[in-house]
Amino acid sequence: MNKILLKIGGGFHLFCAALHVCFPSMFKWSERIAPLSGEDALVISANLSIMNYCLLVFWVILAYIPLLYAEEMLETKLGKALLTGIVLFWAVRIFVLQPLYVGFEGPESLVTVAVFLAGIALFAIPWARTVLLPRLIRK
After folding, report:
1. Is residue 73 a contact partner of residue 65, using CB atoms and an 8 Å limit?
2. How far apart are CA 6 and CA 70, in angstroms?
3. Domains in the chain, number
4. What is the domain range of residue 52?
5. Which one, out of 6, 37, 49, 89, has a CA that is 20 to 30 A from the CA of 115?
6. Is pLDDT above 70 for 139?
């Protein structure tokens, strides 16, 4: 069951990568940057593009690993560390960054949070079963 959730999570991260390809048009970056002048527009445009492409690579990596190495993520120390990092990433994204920058109001925000919660569940359930529960049981 854990391996299946991780593989679905890898597919979810591919979906995140695909969304990042669409971000410039989805969020109308060109139109929003157009009112800015000269160097300001170039700096903001360049930074948005660079960060977005870096996130695209990040999502592809976070898709690749669970799709091909789900078993290792569950059984090795390095895999469990990576799994912990993914869960922490999603927890910070949902519970720190979302309320800080977007909030939880409005239908778009609520749909986004629901999608993010589904994403964290795909990794948090295997994490709880393979990392958290064994530590609690030992104590």
Report:
1. yes
2. 6
3. 1
4. 2-138
5. 49
6. no
